[in-house]
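Narrative progress, year one. The postdoctoral researcher (J.K.) led the effort to move from monomer predictions toward full complexes, under supervision of the PI. The following entry was the first complex the group processed end to end, covering 347 residues in total.
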Amino acid sequence: MTTTGAGAGPQRRPSDALARATRALQDEPEPGWPHVMQRVSRSLRQVSRPGRPLLVGDSADGMLSVDERVVVDVVRRRVDRVPGCRPVGVDVGATDQVVTSLRLEVWVRYGEDVVAVAAAARSAAAGSLAEVLGHECPVDVVVVDVERG
Amino acid sequence: MEGLPDVGSGRVGAPGTSREQDVALARAAALGDREAFEEIVRLHGPGMLRYARRVLSDVGDAEEAVQDAFVAAWRSLDRYRGDSALRTWLFGLTSHKAVDLSRRRRPPPVDDQLVAARPADVRTDPWEHASAAELVRALEEALAELPYRQRACWLLVELEGLSQAEIAQVLRIGPDVVRGQLFRARRALEERMARWRP
């Protein structure tokens, strides 16, 4: 970086003093960061992102529900284990708190068999949904991009 | 993703890194991946803290601004769609928190015209033998005298390497305003630094 003023109107050479001081400032470490990182991590552990309650299994004996975020997280983790596939979006469709569908967006690694990877992702998502919710529901998989690794 | 490169291993969002990796981390975090978000914090936090510390001139306020910015980011990441660079978005959140703190706790900025009007003594060159620490201290003092917006524009372009268009997004002002603020900041800093004595 320099202090020459591209786009700053009439060109004006910065003084040597400012240029030297700017370089010194750029090179200065940020010694307080480890402490702040710990502080941020602690505060984040106390922050939840609540989603909708979703009914689980047979509710004849009373309502049992799971937060939508839990469902999304379980699906994400399972799909993330599919080789060559990265989940980038999980949208849960629900009516009256009953999950009716799931839309899964994924990136597929360049060179992979897209159809095979998408099928494996759907299977992983459907299986994890059935485990969490106790019932199956349709899963749409959309390959939104190809990732060049 | 098994078999794919670890997107957390590089300096995601830093100049020269992949926008794709940046978005991948953000999307994973939006889906609840706390490890991905911690990687975002690790990669972008030092720059955000550096900016907040210098724009606020107060370590405690800077730490609070960065912490609040990351909490806000965690809560709202599912609304981040990659229209702007993740780094720009995070700096925008930091800037927003910093402005809030600045309004609550800081005295009004010094009138730029009054300070700039002081004559500079150019008969001697005190910089010739100044140490890096003295240079930094002098520049920090000069920065602290600038009006907030000038200081913010200068820090974002000189220390964080943001473009003027990105600064306009971060500070929610027009590109022409950024250009003007930057010009005045540079001119004022040169004049202030010329007056400095160790």
